[in-house]
Specification:
With 401 residues, the protein is an alpha/beta fold. It contains 12 helices and 18 strands. It folds into 2 domains: 217 residues, 3-Layer(aba) Sandwich (Rossmann fold); 96 residues, NAD(P)-binding Rossmann-like Domain (Rossmann fold). Helix content is 32%, strand content 24%. It is globular, with a radius of gyration of 21 Å. The termini are far apart. The structure holds zinc ion. Zinc ion (ZN) binds next to loops.
């Protein structure tokens, strides 16, 4: 295989999570089918330091008919509101300017700009585009790439700001997407890219961020190498705790903006702490094995005491944990969700059913798959815990709460 970024051949397998289903393949219980399995392996490129998956599940499988609706998470809405305020401070918008959101889902982020700046959403998800349009956020139901960028440019002109949250590691058409951004972004425009930050993912043990939708895992160093191919550069970056460690990078055309001190500091830390070496990720792989053994031990122990356990939530990243730890219907009675689109299905790769949270009895213990929203979720479970209910947090260190 060749590197997705630099096309070099010097790639090394560093993290192997085995054969796994596509983590969003929630098939209805009524459809008695097994889902296909694909290798879930991360490689380090010695040429450009980019961490990446070896195997690509076709994007049409993953992003046309999927169930993730961003408006459902309170923490995410709070975050988007703050980011919108930051962008309005940093970027001097004129009346004719617009903000483009790549993979803007149901329009939750762009809705923050209402009555302030014009907006345009591009999302490949059929349901998401429908919701966005019905909420008055115009959405083009396509994949964003060079061709889509050309279409938008011809009708709307250049974009003063382009935003993408959680999309820049999905990109199968990697270079076409950044060619599109280079073309569409105004000369003094800003690309605001939000992504899982690989160094924090490693520090937090968040191996559940490795799934087939995430083809790329960025450091600021490796992301810069990708952007440079398209005459773009990062001029500022900040780190956030969401999703087990995220980064917001502010990007412009080369030479348009000055690098901030905090960006220089972050780059120096990456270098000094070894995040540009394969060894760092091989060490991480050993920790992942330890986390699996600890989690399985906690669950076995509870089962030996005759306790019932349900997975709380059915996020795509939970599929990585469940399949890597080989948890089955014997350990987990079911998973419970509030997103109705996922109910009455099987957890991908298992016979663990997913039901609506209001429609099943509470268990003795919940396995907290959305552990990165732990505080928000724990505060909703005060009554459950007061009545003796337990919470199993699978990461960053498996524990029984
Ligand atoms: Zn490379």
């Amino acid at each position: 295989m060749n590197c997705r970024n630099c096309h070099g051949e010097n790639l090394e397998l560093v993290i192997d999570l085995g054969m796994q289903p596509w983590g969003n393949n929630f098939l209805p219980i009524s459809v008695n089918q097994t889902v296909p399995l694909y290798p879930l392996q991360s490689f380090f490129c010695h040429g450009c330091t980019m961490m990446q998956l070896g195997y690509t599940v076709p994007k049409e499988t993953m992003f046309v008919d999927h169930n993730y609706v961003s408006g459902t998470t309170h923490s995410l809405r709070v975050h988007f509101k703050k980011l919108c305020e930051d962008m309005l401070k940093k970027i001097k918008f004129q009346d004719t300017d617009y903000v483009l959101d790549i993979g803007g889902n149901d329009g939750t982020f762009l809705a923050q700009f209402e009555n302030k700046v014009k907006v345009l959403n591009v999302d490949s998800g059929v349901k998401q585009a429908e919701i966005s349009n019905s909420n008055g956020i115009e959405c083009i139901n396509q994949f964003f790439n060079l061709k889509t960028a050309q279409q938008i440019l011809s009708t709307r002109g250049h974009a003063k700001a382009i935003h993408g949250s959680g999309v820049f590691f999905h990109l199968e058409e990697l270079h076409s997407v950044f060619e599109g951004i280079e073309l569409l972004l105004a000369k003094d425009g800003v690309l605001v890219a939000e992504f899982i930050y690989l160094p924090d993912m490693v520090r937090n043990g968040a191996y559940d961020q490795i799934y087939h939708e995430h083809l790329l895992y960025y450091t600021l160093h490796s992301f810069s190498k990708l952007l440079a191919k398209h005459h773009l550069e990062i001029h500022d970056a900040e780190l956030l705790p969401i999703h087990g460690g995220s980064c917001i990078a502010y990007i412009s055309h080369q030479g348009e903006q000055k690098q901030t001190e905090r960006l220089k500091d972050l780059l120096a830390i990456e270098e000094n702490e070894g995040f540009n070496t394969a060894d760092c990720y091989k060490q991480f792989a050993k920790r992942i094995t330890g986390m699996r053994n600890d989690l399985v031990a906690i669950i076995r122990d509870l089962k030996n005491q005759g306790k019932s356990i349900q997975a709380l939530g059915a996020p795509v990243k939970g599929s990585t944990i469940i399949n890597y730890c080989q948890l089955s219907h014997n350990e987990l009675d079911c998973a419970v969700e509030v997103n109705r689109l996922k109910c009455e299905t099987y957890f991908p790769g298992t016979k663990i059913p997913v039901y609506h949270q209001d429609e099943v009895e509470k268990p003795d213990a919940y396995l907290l798959l959305s552990w990165n929203f732990k505080d928000e979720i724990l505060s909703k479970l005060n009554d459950f815990r007061a009545n003796g209910g337990k919470i199993i947090s699978p990461l960053p260190q498996p524990e029984l709460i």
